[in-house]
Request: fold
Amino acid sequence: MSLNDFETVLKRSLGKFLTGVPVALRDSIEYSLLGAGKRIRPRLVQATSELLNLPESAQHAAAVAIEMIHCYSLIHDDLPCLDNDDMRRGRPSNHKKFGEATALLAGDALTSLATESLLSAQGGSLKAEWILAAIQRLSWASGPRGMVGGQAAEAELNAHSSLADLKRMHAGKTGALFVASILMPADLSGISEATSQGQCLLELAQRMGSAFQVADDLEDVHEMADPAKAMLSVLTHLSAAEASRLEIAQLQASKVQLSRLFDASRCTALLKICDEVIRKLEEAAVSANTQAKVQGSARS
Reply:
């Protein structure tokens, strides 16, 4: 499934799920969900589904579900009571466009729609208990032990917080949805975490989520000038070179393990995304070092 194919699937799903929904709520949901985005989470679903030869219907259901949860988190993150951001990806945030109440309800609605999407998974020899396992995975990832818990942990970080504290927060806020993106296809394929293949996919997902977040931190090096934002960055604890080197080494190890345990001909899409994240880290580290030198020269 290409990115264009996913956009088509997403629009088709909304056409089904939003029939009869109040106009303002429908428009608010479509505004954020169909807006431009990286779509890395549904791409991970698609790549893992290819690896496991998951039926197309199940792949679509999981990809739409994870993007709905991610979109809901962005809508709520931007609200005045949280990050209070007026802009998202170069245009007004949902609450600036539709009002706080409608934005709040749009986020709430997307959590329900994500479950409804996963329940539509079918095809091949898919078993009901596998679908339930995927729903449980998504519920964990989006809830207080996953993304929402990570968001709450972010509010508790302070100048005395350790790197381990920061990593735990990132594992929830960012990492949990990466885990769900890779392990929901495993759940839908009947692959348990207790197996060597399940453990391999879990470690890959955790490392990819961590690497993606570190790359974002390196790209946002300019925020280090703000003490409140600096304590949320890995650069408070490690240099850009150290942070990127550690993440790249872990991802490379996961790539080797993936190729060893799975059919190499089916690993291509997932390995490609790993390489994209590695390049993102490498480029962000170079940019962060350059900016640090410029800032150092300016201060001297």
About this structure: The first strand starts at residue 87 and ends at 88. The domain at 1-144 is CATH 1.10.600.10 (Farnesyl Diphosphate Synthase). The radius of gyration is 19 Å. The longest helix spans residues 268-299.
